[in-house]
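$ run holo --ligand "adenosine-5'-diphosphate" --emit tokens
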Amino acid sequence: MVMTMGQSGHSSGDPGGLVLVLNSGSSSVKFAVLAPASGERVLAGIAEKVTTPEVELRIRRYPDNVITEQLPDGSYQAVISRILGHLADAGLGTAADGASAPGRVHLVGAGHRVVHGGERFTASVLVDDEVIAAIRSSSHLAPLHNPANLAGIEAVRAVRPGLAQVAVFDTAFHQTMPPAAFRYAVPEPWYTQYGVRRYGFHGTSYRFVTERAAALLGRPLTELRLVAAHLGNGCSVAAVRDGASADTTMGLTPLEGLVMGTRSGDVDPGIFGYLAERARLTIDELNDALYTASGLQGLSGVSNDMRTVEGAAAEGNERARLALEVFVHRLAKAIAGMVVGLERLDALVFTGGIGENSALIRSQVLARLGFLGLIEDAEANARNGRDTQGRISLAGPVVAMVVPTDEELMIARDTARLAAAGAHRA
Ligand code: ADP
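-- output --
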């Protein structure tokens, strides 16, 4: 989700300087340069087909200058170098030695989204050699993501060696879950030798939206019992007790839990043996089907995109209608289940592309959760809570609300804070 800009895209008089936020994937790099204090964006964009000769960089220089360019070299390093070049062109870069030139805005650090921090990382950290080694040693838990995240970190190091770098983990927030929530009932060595346990994801988003929800409710986060539903292409729900994660629906991998765009969410683990036997499917084929051909896509046969599925259902497509029913049933069931770890529910928070924009899904979920004390305010819900401080429920014991997430801003804030602390120590 991209925040609205401040009045001037190029003002950037933010005394805290700017942060480069990177989400380096195996084939793309998403990036933004923003001011951590205000959330104001200076640059944002995506490089696609990274590591191939056809790499294409699409960059928006705020407020509205969009540039698309082919790069002669597709490496992560070349991409990052070019992004920093654009920053300098905008008159906002720093001198090569990292010192800020007079009249220019200082780049205080680079913040990286890192998917899996295993049990080692319970919060964001300044990157050093040891952290790089630890991220590498967690790569078996996210073989597609962690190596790409590391490639981004190493590329920034090569291009701007003096720049503070911070790793922000999707899993870290959930490290407060108690064993009752994170252990699987499987043989002990699977956990002790192979790390088979529930880790959970979307932690950066949950931190952002629960802080924001507390501010909107005018109550300290440390006294709130919240359930938050992050519903994007990937979907999960988390229980947040007094500011700490108590439970969540994703597990060892981001496949567990809710129905998602193309991912199945929970299935009977007996499916694996059954289909291996009956359909002669290999592990790769099963994995591929559960990650890419299931979820809304698999059920509806129409699309993995909620807007399209909602549209098809409205036109009478039966499979699309069923996909929505399964999505909502499983989501409502998961939300109710999350309350067990909280003992009390103060507010239910919706976020992510679906959570922020689909009045239909929210309405259907709330209709199933009346027994928790949730009553939809239809008018406020139709307006995505825009004029009601996020609130979409009528007065009652529990508040339902919409809180737009901004993971990039959370990463930028962590980066600025840790970079300042690191500079202070040095
Ligand atoms: P990602 O997880 O990749 O960041 P998003 O958070 O942007 O994705 O969420 C994408 C999902 O949000 C898609 O399924 C999309 O259809 C859905 N979405 C966005 N806008 C709407 C809307 N107005 N109504 C229903 N679904 C929407």
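-- notes --
Confidence is low (pLDDT under 50) at residues 1-14, 95-100.
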